[in-house]
Amino acid sequence: MPLFSFLDLNPSRWKPVLVAVIVLFTLSGAGFSFHDGTVTWFWTEMPFIGVILILAAFGSAKIWVDLDRLDLKTKTETAFREAGKSQDFKELLSARELEVLLKISEGKTNKEIADELFIEVSTVKTHINKIYKTLNIKSRKEAAKAARSTD
């Protein structure tokens, strides 16, 4: 579950701020001083501060990922509303993705789908990943259920 799912914020507004925070923490934590021909790490006497800054940069990156997921979820929900029905995703998927979704609902394996549609298994996997993202689902079982709900 995204860290900021309880906030009703536009995630894209926060991305530039997060970039600045990540860069600042990373550069501060890994900063070096060049003085009188010697190179020293800023935090030589207190290395835990550098470690904390680097961990803060990783934390900020985690927030970035959570905001990105929230943004994708919001866009998907908006696309569903624009499609007219909450379950009408036929307009959201390409014709080939709909074919792959149908084959999944028939219980076919990736190899069987690839053979029947005359495409590579890696292409099938790409289509499946796009279907999962578009429909905001995580498994073949959920995909099959979604495909059956449109019949």
In brief:
With 151 residues, the protein is mainly alpha-helical. The chain contains six helices and two strands; from the N terminus they run αββααααα.
What shape does the CA trace take?
elongated
Taken in chain order, the helices and strands follow as: HEEHHHHH
Q: Which structural class matches the secondary elements?
A: mainly alpha
Work out the number of β strands.
2
Beta percentage is: 5-15%
**Poorly predicted ranges:** none
Counted by DSSP, the helix tally is 6
In total, the number of domains comes to: 2
Helix content: 55-70%
How big is the Rg?
Answer: 23 Å
Q: Could you report the average pLDDT, rounded to the nearest whole number? A: 79
Q: What features would you describe in this structure?
A:
- This protein has 151 residues and is mainly alpha-helical.
- The chain has 2 domains: 12-83; 95-149, Orthogonal Bundle (Arc Repressor Mutant, subunit A).
- The protein is 66% helix and 5% strand.
- It has helices at residues 11-29, 47-83, 95-105, 110-117, 121-135, 140-149; strands at 32-35, 38-41.
- Helix 1 (11-29) runs antiparallel to helix 2, helix 3 (95-105) crosses helix 5 (121-135) and helix 3 (95-105) crosses helix 6.
- The model has no long low-confidence stretch (mean pLDDT 79).
